[in-house]
Amino acid sequence: MSRSLFIALACAIGAAVWILSGQFDGSVSDADAEAAVASGDAAAEADAEPAEIIRTVRVRPSAAEPFEDLLVLYGRTVADRTVDVRAQIDGQVVEVAAERGDTVTAGQVLVRLATDERAARVAQGEALVAQREAEHQAAARLNQSGYRSATDLAAAQAALDAARADLELARLQLARLEIVAPFDGRLDERAVELGDFVDIGQTVATVVDLDPIRVVGQVSERHLGEVDTGETASVLLLDGRVEEGVVSYVGATADAVTRTFPVEVEIANPDATLISGVTAEISIPVARVMAHRVSPGILTLDDNGVIGLRAVDGDGVVVFYPVDIVGGSAEAVWLSGLPETLDVIVVGQDFVIAGQHVNAVEGADPADAAAEDAAPEGAEAEGS
User: Fold this and answer.
1) Does the global pTM surpass 0.85?
2) Alpha carbon distance 322, 287 (integer Å)
3) Which of 222, 273, 287, 333 minimizes the number of CB atoms within 10 Å of its CB?
4) What is the pLDDT of residues 201-246, one digit of tens each?
């Protein structure tokens, strides 16, 4: 066979093989491919989008409880009475009968001054009164006998009265040598020492009355109408003690600078354990509301910066509730503006949003949950 014939035969066999292979290799035409895509596009799109992630959060059922809305004022303790005891007569201090810090009673001697000639004046006055009484009696007998006129009797009576007045003045000056406490209280300051000379009107000591003790605060114009005398108030002192008292005074004139009104609370202090000048926080109940007690750690903000908390409804959907904080401390806060009962998210609230379906698992109290890791189960998928 010639070379050219052999080449032509090989080409013919190859063409036949190529044509036949297209009938049985399982490939589809363009029309068939388009039909397949049209019939399965929904399934293809479903495969292209990832499934929704159902997060797990921990919730705690919460029910509203009665809560007293408190008006909080800041002030300080002051003594019920403070008096500067002054000398009513001049003289030298010969005795100091009480020390600073001593408890004193009304009439107790604090300081005694030298008597000097005052005792002699009393004796002289007593003698003069005795003389004038005798003269008056003699004048009265003579007047009855007709030997003395009524005018002479009146003069004798006047002399007796003057002598008695001088004696009373001498006795009063002698008594004033003892400077005494004006009421029961505490000797807060003593301004003189043994041997000092005091003048009339000079301050000798300061006595304070600490029972009851008063706590003075200021209330704004906005809340003035919410405070009445006779109401019970709670007072938190700087050292942590809490005392109960009664509102005894509400001012009717505002401070010219602060535009606030004075409020005073009286606290019984029979042992004088409370002292004057201590910073205090006054809490006065002004309203009773229904509120939820929750941990402050579960509070969060929405996209608009509104403070609130997230809860899960009966369908397992996250709901954001704006709240009003009506009271609380570092351990717990009281919130109003919420439904009577709800399932509060205590762990995982920062990893879900309102309207999202979640898997809610009942967990611990918020106070305990605050110590746990804030990330919920499955949170790692957030960044995967």
Assistant:
1) no
2) 21
3) 222
4) 999 999 999 999 999 999 998 888 889 999 999 999 988 899 999 9
Q: Which residues contact 358 (CB under 8 A, 6 or more apart)?
A: 54, 55, 56, 57, 312, 316, 317, 318, 348, 352
Question: How many Cα atoms occupy the beta-carbon half-sphere of 114 within 13 Å?
Answer: 13
CATH architecture of 115-175: Orthogonal Bundle (1.10)
158-189 pLDDT, tens digit each: 999 999 999 999 899 888 999 999 999 999 99
In sequence order, which residues have a C-beta less than 8 Å from that of residue 365 and are 6 or more positions away? 60, 295, 346
Amino acid at 67: F
- Residue boundaries of the structural domains of the chain: 55-66+290-368, 71-78+208-289, 115-175
Is residue 151's pLDDT more than 90? no
Average pLDDT in the chain: 82
> What is the C-alpha to C-alpha distance for residues 335 and 63, in angstroms, rounded to an integer?
11
Q: What digits encode the pLDDT tens for the residues 362-372?
A: 876 544 444 44
Residues 6+ apart with CB under 8 A from 38: none
Find all residues with CB under 8 Å of 213, minimum gap 6, and list them. 77, 78, 79, 80, 266, 267, 269, 274, 275, 276
Per the structure block, which two tokens stand in for 277? 């000048």
CATH architecture of 71-78+208-289: Beta Barrel (2.40)
**Contacts with 327 (C-beta within 8 Å, 6 or more apart), sequence order:** 67, 68, 69, 70, 291, 333, 334
Q: From its phi and psi, is residue 134 left (phi > 0), alpha (psi between -120 and 50) or beta?
A: alpha
Q: Pick left, alpha or beta for residue 354 (phi over 0 → left; psi -120 to 50 → alpha; otherwise beta).
A: beta
SS3 326: strand
Q: 269, 212 in Cβ contact below 8 A? A: yes
H/E/C letters for each residue in 231-278? CEEEEEECCCCEEEEEEEEECCCCCCCCCEEEEEEEECCCCCCCCCCC
- Alpha-carbon distance 73 to 81, whole Å? 22
